[in-house]
Amino acid sequence: MKVIHYSAAEAKVFNADPAKGVTGRVVIGQADGAANFCMRIFELSPDGHTPKHSHSWEHEIFVHAGTGAVWRDGAWVEIARGSVIFVPGNEEHQLKNTGTEVLTFVCLIPSGVEEI
Amino acid sequence: MKVIHYSAAEAKVFNADPAKGVTGRVVIGQADGAANFCMRIFELSPDGHTPKHSHSWEHEIFVHAGTGAVWRDGAWVEIARGSVIFVPGNEEHQLKNTGTEVLTFVCLIPSGVEEI
């Protein structure tokens, strides 16, 4: 059993277009023997956003802290601490921070795709 | 795309031995078309705990709020907001609240087992 604080995992920074102010960490993945799905934690700075994109695999997302919005069907939907987002495969999506504190969310993907 | 606050999902209460003070919600599952893994949110009251048990499937857990402990290899390991726990299949585990506020955590399981 692995027990860590998420901040102890290696951080990867994405700060080049089409991402901005994104820090990501794989906290449970193939290296831990997790064969079915992978947990990542992302932090978006107050002006940060993920790329607007789509791909064949799904996301299961839980918002841990902060406030922001998610792009759904051509419009922004507000999210905050405690929000849950299911992004089915092939659906366009983007997350952005709309507040003054860091937006932190848990984002899971199935195994077999790039972990981060 | 599904966007909800986790508290909007149907709550199921587990308050009979070997569980105590546990409220669980399936927030992303088969009903949403999630074919690979399932997200649940659990809240443990200040005196609450999950059963001490093991099963063939894994858990991927993120602690959203509160303080507690997880049973690992015959001893309690402290957990708190931001802790990540990977419980491999067939490993005995239990979570308990050791604080005065609700212990809230996200717990994911692979598809194909009972969702809650």
Question: Keywords, please?
Answer:
6-stranded antiparallel β-sheet; 3-stranded antiparallel β-sheet; mainly beta; homodimer; Jelly Rolls; 116 residues
Strand and helix map with partners:
The structure is a homodimer of 116-residue chains.
Chain A: E1 2-5, E2 12-14, E3 20-28, E4 37-49, E5 59-65, E6 67-72, E7 75-80, E8 83-87, E9 95-97, E10 103-110
Antiparallel strand pairs in A: 2-3, 3-4, 4-10, 5-8, 5-10, 6-7, 6-9
* Strand runs of chain A, count: 10
Mean pLDDT of chain A: 98
- CA(first)-CA(last) distance of chain A: 22 Å
Give the fraction of residues assigned to helices of chain A.
under 10%
Oligomer: homodimer
**How many DSSP helices of chain A?**
0
Helix and strand string of chain A, N-terminal first?
EEEEEEEEEE
Major pleated sheet of chain A: 6 strands, antiparallel
- According to CATH, the fold-level topology of chain A is Jelly Rolls
Which descriptor suits the 3D outline of chain A?
globular
Overall tally of structural domains of chain A: 1
The CATH architecture term of chain A is: Sandwich
Task: Using the coordinates above, name the CATH class of chain A.
Answer: Mainly Beta
Q: Catalogue the unreliable spans of chain A.
A: none
Largest interface: A-B, 40 and 40 residues
How much of the sequence of chain A is in beta strands?
over 45%
